[in-house]
């Protein structure tokens, strides 16, 4: 997928965690400028194009990527959500589930396939075409702005946000809305890229996940700080490591891969995970990085207070 044509108008942002206005430059990658909050240390993009804030990118330019055959095959591969399903099952054995940013519905589809009859799943997303595909797979979708006051289907047992909060301009509002929609004692699982991961430290601005679509760059500390007003933190999990990404991004020297290339990498990674020896070796490395809090992704498991 080629780079989208984005409205040249840009929006200056305050800190998404503490709302402070003061910040200092942290990193520059092409037109993308990351800053560090002078008050709490949160790293975020500012200014940002309007199309990334209002969702137009995901509705229009993102369509060829999210609905490509390669991306769909990767997302719907049985190994794709193995870790997420294990985390989820530990804290929610059954009930009403909302997947925010569900894209084409792969997580809810796998949840239904693995545990038939255990869950009533709903998905929501800013991308209409992605929701169309999810619906074609039997997923119940809610076509409404998640932050809307009259968002339907209140009283969920669990809300998931897999790789969502890094994309939105108001991540704190997303967590507040999740708390409003959950039953008392309900759980929210929020996965984000880990700013302190080994891959990001090695690659820095060459890392493919430092890109325009990502407006927020969380550490465990900043994500906890943002969630603690509404939630109790039950677990912090560090998962995923892809040595192929490090090798490819070192080779590309910061040139952003196309959507097709990213989807093919997901396919390739899923195939490698099926090889028993590689899977065993990968598991050892991932566990070591998890212990050191250096894996690629961070997931907080939160319980509504």
Secondary structure blueprint with pairings:
Blueprint: E1 10-11, E2 23-29, E3 32-37, E4 43-45, E5 48-49, H1 50-53, H2 56-59, H3 63-66, H4 69-75, H5 82-91, E6 95-100, H6 106-114, E7 119-124, H7 128-136, E8 140-141, E9 156-162, H8 171-181, E10 182-193, H9 198-203, E11 216-217, H10 220-227, E12 231-239, H11 243-252, H12 259-273, H13 276-291, E13 297-304
Parallel strand pairs: 6-7, 6-9, 7-8, 9-10
Antiparallel strand pairs: 1-5, 2-3, 3-4, 4-11, 10-13, 12-13
Question: What's the short story on this structure?
Answer:
This protein has 305 residues and is α/β, with parallel strands linked by helices. It has helices spanning 50-53, 56-59, 63-66, 69-75, 82-91, 106-114, 128-136, 171-181, 198-203, 220-227, 243-252, 259-273, 276-291, and strands at residues 10-11, 23-29, 32-37, 43-45, 48-49, 95-100, 119-124, 140-141, 156-162, 182-193, 216-217, 231-239, 297-304. The chain has one domain: Rossmann fold, CATH 3.40.50.150.
Taking the sheet with the most strands, its summary is: 7 strands, mixed
Number of helices: 13
Question: Taking strands numbered 1, 2, ... along the chain, how are they ordered across the largest sheet?
Answer: 8-7-6-9-10-13-12
Structural class assignment: alpha/beta
What is the second-level CATH architecture?
A: 3-Layer(aba) Sandwich
Sequence of secondary-structure elements: EEEEEHHHHHEHEHEEHEHEHEHHHE
Q: Class in CATH? A: Alpha Beta
Q: How many structural domains?
A: 1
CATH homologous superfamily - what is it? Answer: Vaccinia Virus protein VP39
Question: Which range does the strand content fall in?
Answer: 15-25%
Distance between the termini: 42 Å
């Amino acid at each position: 997928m080629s780079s989208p044509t984005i409205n040249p108008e840009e929006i200056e942002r305050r800190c998404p965690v503490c709302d402070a206005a003061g910040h200092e430059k942290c990193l520059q990658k092409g037109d993308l400028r990351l800053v560090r909050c002078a008050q709490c240390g949160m790293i975020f993009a500012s200014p940002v194009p309007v199309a990334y804030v209002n969702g137009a990118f995901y509705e229009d330019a993102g369509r060829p990527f999210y609905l490509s055959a390669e991306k769909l095959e990767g997302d719907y591969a049985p190994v794709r959500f193995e870790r997420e399903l294990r985390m989820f099952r530990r804290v929610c054995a059954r009930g009403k589930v909302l997947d925010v940013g569900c894209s084409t519905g792969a997580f809810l589809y796998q949840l239904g396939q693995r545990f038939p009859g255990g869950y009533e799943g709903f998905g929501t997303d800013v991308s209409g075409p992605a929701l169309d595909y999810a619906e074609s797979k039997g997923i119940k979708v809610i076509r409404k702005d998640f932050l809307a006051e009259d968002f339907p289907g209140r009283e969920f047992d669990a809300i998931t946000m897999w790789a969502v909060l890094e994309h939105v301009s108001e991540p704190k509002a997303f967590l507040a809305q999740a708390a409003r929609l959950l039953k008392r004692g309900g759980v929210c699982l929020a996965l984000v890229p880990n700013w302190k991961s080994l891959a990001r430290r090695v690659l820095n601005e060459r890392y493919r996940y430092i890109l325009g679509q990502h407006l927020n760059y969380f550490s465990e500390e900043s994500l906890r700080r943002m969630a603690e007003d509404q939630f109790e933190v039950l677990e912090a999990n560090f998962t995923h490591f892809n040595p192929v990404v490090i090798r490819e991004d070192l080779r590309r020297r910061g040139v952003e891969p196309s959507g097709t290339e990213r989807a093919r990498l997901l396919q390739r990674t899923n195939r490698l995970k099926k090889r028993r020896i590689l899977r065993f070796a990968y598991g050892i490395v991932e566990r070591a990085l998890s212990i050191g809090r250096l894996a690629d992704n961070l997931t907080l498991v939160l319980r509504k207070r």
